[in-house]
Amino acid sequence: MNQPELEPLLQLGLPNSVFELLAQQRSDNAAAVRTTDDSHALSASIGRPGYAPPNPAVLTDAVTALALGKNVLLKGPTGSGKTKLAEHLSYLFHLPMHSVNCSVDLDLESLLGFKTLSHRSGQPEIDYVEGPVVSAMRQGHLLYIDEVNMAKPETLPVINGVLDYRRRLTNPLTGTVITAHPGFRVIAAVNLGYVGTLPMNEALKNRFIAIDVPYVQGEPLRELLRQISLLKNDKLLDAFVQLSSDLVAQVGLGLIPDEAASIRALVDACDLAVYLPPMRAVERAIVDKLEEDRERLAVRNVAETLFSGA
Ligand SMILES: Nc1ncnc2c1ncn2[C@@H]1O[C@H](COP(=O)(O)OP(=O)(O)O)[C@@H](O)[C@H]1O
Ligand SMILES: [Mg+2]
After folding, report:
1. What is the DSSP letter of 264?
2. Considering the entire predicted model, what is its pTM?
3. Which atom of ligand 1 is nearest to the CA of 267?
4. Which of 27, 175, 232, 256 is most buried, by the most CB atoms less than 10 A from its CB?
5. pLDDT tens, 60-111?
6. Residue after which a domain boundary falls, among 212, 240, 268
């Protein structure tokens, strides 16, 4: 691997021993991707960088746990960048990413695959089409399990098997035992409000290293907004960073729901503010999506103090 490729890893400021693990795994994974038949498609499923950590430990601890082969659980409110972080890790480790969402992929088929009838030389044959969990385990890729706390009782044994330190799973569809490739890694995510406990069963929780993923704030947020939103006006960017901080505080007090402080909604507001008065941008991107009058009022009050006269 040449130097420019190591540059993003060097920037992480990892301890030497972790850096070496990461660099080795990245180079092994890159070699594995290069030598497969569908290396083009696989490369496309590697995530892109761009996660801005709220503090450096969020990223370095996730890298460290993954480099040690541990399962990582990202917990944080909606729109805090959990999926973005998983994609960034996929990029750093050069691992193709297979995603499942436990609140959508409820049945075994969507995790493990299904059987289908096909014809070969005129003879009917049963083919097995591999699901994302099996693909990731067999090829040594990254499995991203979103909303893992929403897994139904019938899919829990599958997920537990995947997370087991033996990395072994009996596929009920084929009757075969799958043992994961050594490169296989698991990241799961839960949407967790600022208030409330982790809604997950103990057996599941036990199998993870948990990493809190709060909303990015302050200077890193300013940089992020400047990079990913259309807004370039410094004064307005400052005001939106302050708005985010005020909204996060209100969420903490239970006055408004998590979604109101989502970075996704904030980016939308910044985009609109290039073309609309900022107050109306906030109305459309944040306020109008809230259900209760008092919540809308709370956000409006905060925004008015920041944008009055703008
Ligand atoms: N810390 C962050 N760094 C980079 N982008 C972020 C960050 N937090 C939020 N975002 C942006 O906000 C949007 C929502 O992030 P996402 O990863 O989907 O959140 P989550 O999975 O936690 O709901 C994405 O478009 C992402 O670009
Ligand atoms: Mg997500």
Report:
1. H
2. 0.92
3. 12
4. 256
5. 999 999 999 999 999 999 899 999 999 999 999 999 999 999 888 778 888 9
6. 212
